[in-house]
Amino acid sequence: MMSRMRPFVLAAGLLLAGFAQAQPETFPAARARGELVVGVPYLAPPPVAGAKIRTPEGLDAAITDKLGASLKLPVRLVQLPAADADQALKAGEVDLVLADRGDGQPQTVAVQATGYAARPKAVIRTDTRMRKPADVQGRSVCMAEAATQAQALAQSWGATVKTYRVPSDALVAVREGECDIGLVDDAVWEPLMRFPEWKKFSSTLTPDGARQERVWLLRAQDEASRAWLGQEMRAWDRAGAWKAMTTKWARDVAFDVYLDQEVPDCHG
For the structural domain made of 28-44+55-118+212-260, what CATH number should be given? Predict the structure, then answer.
C-alpha cells in the first residue's frame, strides 16, 4: 500500500511546487531593488544633530514598517501627495502610496482600504467648561504639523491653530497651559487616556468632522500585489493589529511627554 502511495505523494508535491513557481511575484520592482518605497502625505524632516528623537504624528511609520516586515523588505518613505500617486507609480518612483483618501484616482490606480479610520479628538483639561465645538471659537488649539485634518477642523471652529513638529510637543503645550486644546486621532485618544497622568486631561468635545480611512494606492495592473495586499489587510484586522499599533503609539507619546516635562504639570 505504501509503495503505491509514494508516486501519488511525489506527483502531488511536484504539482504544488509547480503551482507555487507559477504564481506572479508581489511587488517585483521592490524585490529587485531590495527595498519597498512608499509614498506618504507628510514626511518629517530628519532631526538636526543633537535634537531629541520623538514619535511622529499618526501611524504611517508603524503601518509601513509592518508591511515591509510582511514582505521581508526594508522600507524607505518619501513625501508624496495622493494627487501625484499615478505618475509616481507609473514611473516606478514608489511601489505604493499610503493616502488619506482614495477618491479622484484614475483607473490606472487601485485603491485598497487599510481598515484604519480616525478623526481628530480633543484633549482638554477636566476643569474647563469646553464641551462642544462652538465653545472653541477664539481658543488656541494645538496639534502636530502633519495633522492636516485636525488643522482644518480647528479652523472651521474659528480657533487659533498652533502646530508643532511632533504630537508630544503639542500635548506638552496643552499640559503646560500654552494651548487650550490638543487634537489627536480618536483611535489613539482612549489608550492615551488610560495612563494615570492623563486623567485630568481626559475631557473632550462632542465628535465633529468625518472619519477618514487610510488607503493604499498601487498600480491597478499589478493584480498579484493587489490580491496579496487585500489579504494582508484582512489578516491585520483579524489579528488586532490596529489596536496594537494605536496602543503602542499612545504609550510612546506618553513617554515622550514625560521626558519633555522636567517638572510635574505646572497647574498642579
Answer: 3.40.190.10
